[in-house]
Design goal:
The protein is of the alpha/beta class. The chain has eight helices and 13 strands. β1 and β2 form a beta hairpin. α1 packs parallel to α2 and α6 packs across α7. The N and C termini lie far apart (48 Å).
């Protein structure tokens, strides 16, 4: 049995296991069929990002065939009533890439929900009506500015929610939001409490950072809150095992740890896994168990390498 690069064991029985291994090999060798309740992941987008161990500019057909192979592996390990959340973005010059990826997976999965991850948004006071808690125009979040006159700034990414049946029940109110108009609570029979379905637009901004190499040493990550919301939406009670085939610096593992759910992750880059280990270790005292009974096991007990990752990407701008 392959030893994990890093492993945590919690007192509630859940565990986090990270493997330095290509995900196709890892899913085939280490995971049993129908063993994963949820898959949350974000593969490389094939847009030329500077990964240290991966070529992110493959011929389109080759890339899509590889995505199809990943989908085949996920199909094998995902339970029949499981959820497969796939985050993918694009560039202004090639907005079709996420759609092409979804089409590649269409023979194996049903697109049960199409969610938009909103990273930055601007709202005019005039468009919000008479809400007394809003004093003026607002612009919040972070975005990557686009120069020139052809394209607008890209402020969102796709989050595809695939299932095998298209009929997987969700815990919608687990990520619900309060009604703005409280009279809805009494007006609608379905509104048993002051909480409604959030819908398919999720505003999840990046945390502000001051040094990308030190605080986000990976060219493409999603905030920890995104996989946490995916797990909650599927239903924590039914989330026995979570898989992230492209675990990177560990965001999905951190979300699972906070919710007391087991998580398995794969990545080919040891530096990213070392950063994931560091980040997970910081979260362990704050995990859902609230106890100091977590055991750490590492294949190689090393901290972050002194060599910085060469993965500088265009900086994000606050709205």
């Amino acid at each position: 049995m392959e030893k994990p690069f890093f492993e945590t064991k919690n007192s509630n029985g859940s565990r986090i296991r990270l493997f330095r291994m290509e995900c196709l090999e890892g899913m085939k060798r280490l995971l049993k069929p129908n063993s994963m309740s949820i898959v949350v992941t974000s593969p490389p987008y094939n847009i030329g990002l500077p990964y240290s161990q991966y070529d992110d500019r493959k011929p389109r057909t080759e890339y899509l065939d590889w995505i199809g192979s990943v989908g085949e592996g996920v199909d094998r390990v995902l339970r029949n009533q499981g959820s497969f959340f796939l985050n993918i973005g694009s560039t202004p010059k090639d907005p079709w890439m996420p759609i092409d990826v979804a089409q590649k997976l269409r023979p194996r999965f049903i697109l049960q929900n199409l969610i938009h991850w909103i990273k930055s948004i601007a709202i005019s006071k005039n468009d919000m009506g008479q809400h007394t808690n809003v004093l003026g125009d607002i612009a919040v979040g972070h975005y990557k500015p686009v120069g020139g006159t052809r394209f607008v700034n890209s402020c969102h990414e796709y989050l595809f929610h695939f299932t095998k049946t298209g009929n997987v029940p969700l815990d919608r109110l687990a990520i619900g939001v309060p009604y703005q108009d409280k009279s809805n609570v009494g007006r609608w029979k379905s509104a048993g409490k002051d909480l409604r379905c959030r819908g398919n637009t999720w505003f999840i901004p990046y945390q502000t950072i001051w040094n990308r190499d030190q605080q986000r040493p990976h060219p493409s990550t999603f905030p920890d809150h995104l996989p946490e919301m995916c797990i909650r939406l599927h239903g924590v009670a039914r989330a026995k095992n979570v898989l992230d085939p492209f675990i990177g610096v560990g965001s999905t593992a951190i979300a699972a740890l906070r919710l007391g759910v087991s998580c398995t992750g794969f990545d080919i880059d040891g530096n990213y896994l070392s950063e994931a280990k560091r980040r997970i270790s910081l979260v362990i005292p704050q995990s859902i168990t609230g106890e100091n009974q977590t055991t750490l096991v590492s294949r190689r007990d090393r901290g972050r390498t002194s060599r910085q990752h060469r993965c500088e990407s265009p900086s994000l701008v606050r709205a």
